[in-house]
From TrEMBL:
<feature type="binding site">
    <location>
        <position position="114"/>
    </location>
    <ligand>
        <name>Mg(2+) 2</name>
    </ligand>
</feature>
<dbReference type="GO" id="GO:0006000">
    <property type="term" value="P:fructose metabolic process"/>
</dbReference>
<dbReference type="GO" id="GO:0006002">
    <property type="term" value="P:fructose 6-phosphate metabolic process"/>
</dbReference>
<dbReference type="InterPro" id="IPR000146">
    <property type="entry name" value="FBPase_class-1"/>
</dbReference>
<dbReference type="GO" id="GO:0030388">
    <property type="term" value="P:fructose 1,6-bisphosphate metabolic process"/>
</dbReference>
<dbReference type="InterPro" id="IPR033391">
    <property type="entry name" value="FBPase_N"/>
</dbReference>
<feature type="binding site">
    <location>
        <position position="114"/>
    </location>
    <ligand>
        <name>Mg(2+) 1</name>
    </ligand>
</feature>
<dbReference type="GO" id="GO:0000287">
    <property type="term" value="F:magnesium ion binding"/>
</dbReference>
<feature type="domain" description="Fructose-1-6-bisphosphatase class 1 C-terminal">
    <location>
        <begin position="203"/>
        <end position="329"/>
    </location>
</feature>
<keyword id="KW-0460">Magnesium</keyword>
<dbReference type="GO" id="GO:0042132">
    <property type="term" value="F:fructose 1,6-bisphosphate 1-phosphatase activity"/>
</dbReference>
<dbReference type="GO" id="GO:0006094">
    <property type="term" value="P:gluconeogenesis"/>
</dbReference>
<feature type="binding site">
    <location>
        <position position="92"/>
    </location>
    <ligand>
        <name>Mg(2+) 1</name>
    </ligand>
</feature>
<comment type="similarity">
    <text>Belongs to the FBPase class 1 family.</text>
</comment>
<dbReference type="InterPro" id="IPR020548">
    <property type="entry name" value="Fructose_bisphosphatase_AS"/>
</dbReference>
<keyword id="KW-0614">Plasmid</keyword>
<feature type="binding site">
    <location>
        <position position="282"/>
    </location>
    <ligand>
        <name>Mg(2+) 2</name>
    </ligand>
</feature>
């Protein structure tokens, strides 16, 4: 039997009693998935498609923009503007929100995305991805212009999230709040075919994803947790763990969803509020997937999806994955606090 396509999966989700997928959301997800197909075809051209390298410009984050950052951003904007399912969009690559032009109908959803996560990997042919998060526009936004404030909702308000990962295969990993499902792009048919799901994070896979070069920024508890596992210390855990760091959150999170482990990008312990990863279109969508797969996602202390955002490009510390590993970190922090 042919694997289930994304279209069939979404239609069957729509039919469910608790319908986690109303028709407008189904259209949104299919539109994003179709845009990700265009992105993967652009990426795979590489140097032959003049899509590598930088533009010489900086984005709102102050990061040098890759050609593909802008290409993917435009693909996602163009694909989603006309469908009538969105009230507005927000992207890592745009300083403020992108409202739906008046020539198109507006819908009830807000779409947030990081068009190319880990874009510095593209020039050296390593995996990158597109991360997306879906919120409902506040009811009081009907009949008025959507504002940035309407996007500042806790991650617990997400109705869907997912990512495309552009690696040896092109995959779409998605949750509508009723489990996490993986689809593989069938490049001959152009269809997304379900290849795994519901995903559950395996416990006990002793792999730590962290950038050790940022050690000076970590809290004492995170240093003790990491040093005991992948530091140079002798101790009961020495030699039991391995380390992985791909430079692309999508690739590291996909590995954790498929075989377990833990991912850490802690905030800078020396400068409160200073962190690397963005809350609205990186940490929240990934936390939704991780929790739906039975994992835990915290900012180092508290649940990420409870955080009340204060800005569109706000950053946050991230520790997520195997619930036993996250619990071990929290225990470390608790012991140190009570010492
Ligand atoms: P560093 C990519 O730029 C990103 O936002 C995430 O995808 C990735 O996990 C992290 O930053 C890599 O950061 O400091 O290791 O370059």
């Amino acid at each position: 039997m042919q694997p289930i396509t994304l279209t069939r999966f979404l239609i069957e989700q729509q039919r469910r009693e608790d319908s986690a997928c109303p028709s407008e959301l189904r259209l949104l997800i299919e539109t994003v998935a179709r845009a990700c197909k265009s992105v993967t075809f652009a990426i795979s051209k590489g140097a032959l498609g003049d899509v590598l390298g930088t533009l010489g410009s900086e984005n709102v984050q102050g990061e040098v923009q890759k050609k593909l950052d802008v290409i993917a951003n435009e693909i996602l904007l163009d694909a989603n503007e006309w469908g009538g399912h969105l009230a507005a969009m927000a992207s890592e690559e745009m300083e403020t929100i992108h409202r739906i032009p008046n020539r198109y109908p507006k819908g009830e959803y807000l779409l947030l995305f990081d068009p190319i996560d880990g874009s510095s990997n593209v020039d050296v042919d390593l995996s990158v991805g597109t991360i997306f998060s879906v919120l409902r526009a506040p009811e009081n936004s009907a009949g008025r212009e959507v504002t940035e404030e309407d996007f500042l909702q806790p991650g617990s308000e997400q109705v869907a999230s997912g990512y495309a990962i552009y690696g040896p295969q092109t995959l779409l990993v998605l949750t509508l709040g009723a489990g996490v499902y993986e689809f593989t792009l069938d490049r001959e048919m152009g269809a997304w075919r379900m290849t795994d799901g519901p995903l559950k994070i395996a416990s006990g896979n002793k792999e730590v994803a962290i950038n050790m070069a940022r050690r000076a920024q970590w809290s004492p508890a995170i240093r003790r947790y990491v040093d005991a596992r992948v530091g140079c210390e002798e101790g009961p855990l020495a030699g039991e763990y391995n380390m992985r760091w791909t430079g692309s959150m999508v690739a590291d999170i996909h590995r954790i969803l498929k075989r377990g482990g833990v991912f850490l990008y802690p905030s800078d312990h020396r400068k409160p509020g200073k962190a690397r990863l963005r809350l609205l279109y990186e940490a929240n969508p990934m936390s939704f997937l991780i929790e739906q797969a039975g994992g835990t996602a915290i900012d180092g202390e508290a649940r990420i999806m409870d955080a009340k955002p204060t800005g569109l490009h706000q950053r946050i510390g991230v520790v997520l994955g195997d619930p036993e590993e996250v619990a071990a970190l929290l225990e470390e922090a608790g012991q140190m606090a009570s010492a």
